[in-house]
Amino acid sequence: MPIDRESAAKRAIEHLEKFGDTDLFPSLPEMRCYIDCKDAVAAEFDKLTAGNYRPQHCIESLTPKGALGFRISHQLSATDNIVYLAATIVAAPDLEKYRVNTESHRSFAYRFIEGDEPRLFERGKS
């Protein structure tokens, strides 16, 4: 059954609330507004199209890697994060149809879970 965009936006917000958006940076303060007004935000996100949404620039930073190294890291804006995650949730059931069967134990990538819970990926498949 296809996932509607408004439900996908709500689930994206719930996932980001529970699991965060990054393990490198603190959560962006505006995410709290999206969480507190989830239903209204999801309704507005449902109106977005590729023609009327303008992505924002990401935050680019050097972050430590190991004892002596650094890497370039990026953090999306809270809005972009929700938009892209919701789009992924909408597409995920169709994408999963083409993936290697999990019983073959040949693929250990993230596996999407359909449903309403905030967790988007199967436990132990990361």
Provide an overview of this structure.
The protein is of the alpha+beta class. The chain is built from 4 helices and 2 strands; from the N terminus they run H-H-H-E-E-H. A two-stranded antiparallel sheet has the order 1-2. A hairpin with a 3-residue loop joins strand 1 and strand 2. The protein starts with a helix and ends in a 30-residue tail after the last helix. The mean pLDDT is 86.
Derived from helix and strand composition plus strand pairing, the structural class reads alpha+beta
Side-by-side strand order of the widest sheet: 1-2
| pLDDT averaged residue by residue | 86
Main sheet record: 2 strands, antiparallel
Task: Based on Cα principal axes, name the global outline.
Answer: globular
List the helices and strands in order: HHHEEH
What is the alpha-carbon Rg in Å? 16 Å
Helical coverage, percent range? 25-40%
Kindly report the oligomeric state of this protein: single chain
The number of helical segments is 4
Q: What separation lies between the terminal Cα atoms?
A: 25 Å
Low-confidence stretches: none
- Fraction in beta strands: 5-15%
Report the count of strand segments.
Answer: 2
Write a brief structural summary.
Helix content is 39%, strand content 11%.
